What we know:
The chain has 479 residues and is an alpha+beta fold. It is 16% helix and 25% strand. Strands 1, 4, 5, 6, 7, 8, 11, 19 and 20 form a 9-stranded mixed β-sheet that branches. It has a 7-stranded mixed β-sheet with strand order 12-13-14-15-18-17-16, with no helix packed on it. The chain has a two-stranded antiparallel ribbon with strand order 2-3.
Amino acid sequence: MQQLDFSGWSLYTGPSFLKNIISDPNCPWVVGQWDGINKDTSAAEIKNDIEARILFFIDAFKKILPKFKTINRHFVVPEFYFRCKQGPYPYIKVDGLNYPFEYIKLRIQTELQKIIPKDSNTYTIAIGSVLTSNIADYSSFLSSSMVTQRMNELNAVLATGNKTMLNHTAKTSWFRNLSHVDKNYKDSNDLTALNNFMKLCRANPLCTVRNRGVYYQFNQQLSGGVATYVYEKQYESTVDLTMGVYDPNNKITHGGMLTEWMANYPSYSTLKGDKQIDKFSTNARFTPALVGNYDVGVEICLDHRLQRLRRTVDMTVANGADANNYPIIRQLIPSGGMQIIDYSVATDKASAIFNADGCDKIYVVYGDESTVILNGQAGIFTGITCGVFNKSIQSKWIGKDGNTYYSHSQLAFPTQASVLDGYNNALYLNNKKAITNEGTAQKPFNIITDSFKQSLIKLGITTDLFAATTGELHYYEPF
């Protein structure tokens, strides 16, 4: 039996009232409103929102804790778990001492140490992601002339086409970047104009947003019983924030939120290996204690599709990297609209890759609505999706706004015979892929993957923190 098990919290973590900003099926930009309980962005209200999310998180973890059976126990939460009604948390000290990210990191560690048993097992927890910004006073920023000017420019771009948003009925497309998988589709003139405008906005951001998470490793052999690693998203997708909301006059307004046309992520380079080398690092790779000469890798959502970890396989100090990149023994993907993709698997042979997603369904062909597993219904699935043989669970939710939303989890393993080599940028998607299927396309199997079984645990919890008020735990155990 494999000595590891996995659980993902299946919870819709995206915005409510979600729609494409224009009625173009290829549009990657969405309008919508984030849910939260903060009445404003004062320190007290932001702290209330954070504390409610921590309590919700701890309650969910308590439900899965008795289910674990192996010595290596994993719990992964989707992207966007921590954010407020405005999207990113503001740059304020919520308790007089710590900014939101640091406060969340310390508080969760404290609460987990109260409930994790003092046994010989290793407990690995990844908290999804935390959205933060460099803006302290949202009211002043959102009413500033530079925000108003850009908002007017956006409305001018939208006014050039036929955008009757009040009659908008097109399905929402939760694409993670501008390049949709359908290469034969020709963008409308309206969408081309909007995409070009957003390229200008991204090149001239009005503020900075960061998307980070924390990886906790609890084991009694560690100093203090715990080690922590901060990971940070590199690639900003088109739906990490919303485009705002439409007002009654059919004009875009920021709706009190930081939006895609205001913000950008900080510049981030992986040219020297993407390996954490000190306590200040937020790279995607790190070498925790107790795993030997192996790396753990964490990719937030779009980072996986753009092959962040795959690009740094085999990088070494001898060849100019900051540190030697060891084979990856665990590849975790906390996401908001992503799934495991064959050209992005970076794990070593017989090593796990696990995805916990909070915003989308699972496609056989990524982004192709005609290939959604289980005909778009909730359920358990085993088979090949996006070229990867995996075990999956798909959840379907009806949000408080009446819309249908999804979340999911996936577990996969490269085979014992799988071998990855160094990445060649010129080959891009055609670099060597990990092998996850030992059978045929018609009768796939993988001895390791097939040794796990999926089950789900209903939580029966309601909350005003998220658009869909229910959630469930997806559990993968070996047998």
